[in-house]
Design brief:
Length: 306
Amino acid sequence: QSRESMDFSSRVMTLIGFWTRLPGNLRGILWLSLGAFLFSIVDVFVKSLGGRFHPIEISFFRYACGFVFLIPLFLRLGRGNLATRRFPLHLLRMGLAFIAQLGIFITVIHMPLADATAFMFSKPLFTTVVAVFLLSEVVSGRRWAATIVGFVGVIVLVRPGAGAIDPFALVAVASAMTFAVANVLIRTLSSTEPTGRILFYYHVGGIVLFAGPAAYVWVMPIGIEWGQLIAIGGLTTIGIFCFMRAFTVGEANAVGPAENLRLIYATVFGFLLFAEIPSFWTVTGAVIIVASTLYIARAEAGGGRR
């Protein structure tokens, strides 16, 4: 038994050594690809549960289970490192993020997965605009052009001239815009607040905000539903960690494009699990949005190097 334990430890060390010898950008791409896959699995669980559970109850599980998975991090930080003097800004950021999260769950439940995911990719477009007004960031003419092109892709997805506009498409756009504002506020908070502290108030706030409404619309999970609801919070937390590791070990302009795999995952899962076939307009709008956000990401990475 001791020899088997030593052999196992030796194999683990060999794998760790192989992993650390890989180029940083390759490790970053693998981390981001895994994170994108986990977020796509979360979307599948949300969509499959949406017929029985209210999005508010699903949101409560997302924050409550996410908090449980992050308890070791919070304990390591300690009470002193979790104290903040910027609670009002945390509160504003939390409120916006919660509204956006609820909106995203609604769109995932009621729209094809590929459509809902394509709308999520418009967040960087809104972030560019919001950062100009809230942070007074200077944006180049080329980046403005890329942002405008990206919004053309959003319009293609919404298709305002194709008859009645899908109300869930409007919810998706509003959610992306609201999340963009919340993300810009993270930039402001990060000047004094470490990531762990931001995550602490984000999850505690989500539990407090959604607990009452979730109790009102509560449906008791049965069997595998418990596992799926818990996985929504757990996999989201692990996915966030994967994204953080990806941009820690790799360069943003090299690693970032791997997130586009999430669109492929969404399309494949939507087809195999929910018999969803993306329309021509979905593909066209998604391509335009992805191309513009890739350009914006490369411009931001170049600005960081300078």
